[in-house]
Amino acid sequence: MRVLILGGTTEASELTRLLAADPRFDTTVSLAGRTANPKTQPVRTRIGGFGGADGLVDWLTLDATQAVVDATHPYADQISSNAVAACTRLAIPLASIIRPAWQPQPGDTWLTVGNAEAAADALGPKPRRVFLTLGRLELGAFASAPHHHYIARTIDPPGDVALPPDLRLLSGRGPFDRKAETALLEREKIDLLVSKNSGGAATYAKIEAARRLGIAVVMVARPPKPYGHTVESAEAAIAWLEQRLAHRTTSCSARGV
Ligand code: NAP
Questions:
Q1: Is the CB of 164 under 6 A from ligand 1?
Q2: Residue 29 Cβ contacting ligand 1 at under 6 Å
Q3: Does a structural domain hold residue 105?
């Protein structure tokens, strides 16, 4: 069965690894091309946008894709919207791995806002020491609040994004551990953390560290993200693919093919 994984996440890498070892599936993974040195994938890999929903329809048709798994990040809403549109048009089954959101725990102080611009506003008029853990392209929103001191952690440098004047960059890719995150927040005397609600374990340590140190979190809410059949993990996506495969085999034998 020919499968396309829309990737760029831990779950996508896990699914890719599992499918690479399974001869029943002929798998391609697609990456947006946002990071300069993406991890090497053990299956056929394509990199870069498809050109909207129409471009994705063309690609799926040419590839003769038989099932799609959208394993993109909870904040990647455009590609998911395109996946739903293209798969609906071509009647290709689509599963979406939806990573459960983090829920506030006792001791957490979260202020939830709609986007990076609202997060910059929420930092307030008093100068603060802020740890930014958003994507590099979202850092520009904080140029409108230049009176704070920022530490920003990104995978790649932000390139030509206009940054606030007092910002120091750290480079890092998860998973992060709680001890190191606590030490970082203490060393940098951070008094506010800005985060997405990414869910999952790889980047949760900063939330635990903030709880432990009594640091408030400005949490950028998830965008509404269209989805197909929802599953929570790579293993559940495999189970769904196996069902699709069994369904196809049954229909083919019923038709005597
Ligand atoms: P987005 O806003 O949903 O997508 C913007 C455009 O990028 C899409 O319309 C599509 O271009 C292209 N694109 C996105 N994901 C793609 C993929 N897997 N393969 C091919 N093209 C893709 O996405 P985003 O928020 O920029 O995220 C880009 C990638 O980074 C995603 O794969 C996501 O899983 C990963 N990521 C995102 C975040 C985040 O916070 N947003 C965090 C970690 C990882 P066309 O319309 O031309 O096809």
A1: no
A2: no
A3: no
CATH at 90: 3.40.50.720
Is 86 found in the same domain as 139? no
User: Ligand 1 centroid vs 166 CA: distance in angstroms?
Assistant: 29
Nearest CA to ligand 1 atom 37: 73
Q: What is the pLDDT of residues 89-108, one digit of tens each?
A: 999 999 999 999 999 999 99
- Confidence class of residue 39 from pLDDT cuts 50, 70 and 90? confident
The finding on whether 197 has its CB within 6 A of some atom of ligand 1 is: no
| Secondary structure (H, E, C), the chain | CEEEEECCCHHHHHHHHHHHCCCCCEEEEEECCCCCCCCCCCCEEEECCCCHHHHHHHHHHHHCCCEEEECCCCCCHHHHHHHHHHHHHHCCCEEEECCCCCCCCCCCCEEEECCHHHHHHHCCCCCCEEEEECCHHHHHHHHHCCCCEEEEEECCCCCCCCCCCCEEEEECCCCCCHHHHHHHHHHCCCCEEEEECCCCCCCCHHHHHHHHHCCEEEEECCCCCCCCEEECCHHHHHHHHHHHHHHHHHHHHHCCC
pLDDT at 231: 97
pLDDT at 247 (0 to 100) = 86
Same-domain status, 115 and 58? no
Range(s) of the domain holding residue 51: 2-100+224-254
Same domain, 158 and 75: no
Q: 154: Cβ below 6 Å to ligand 1? A: no
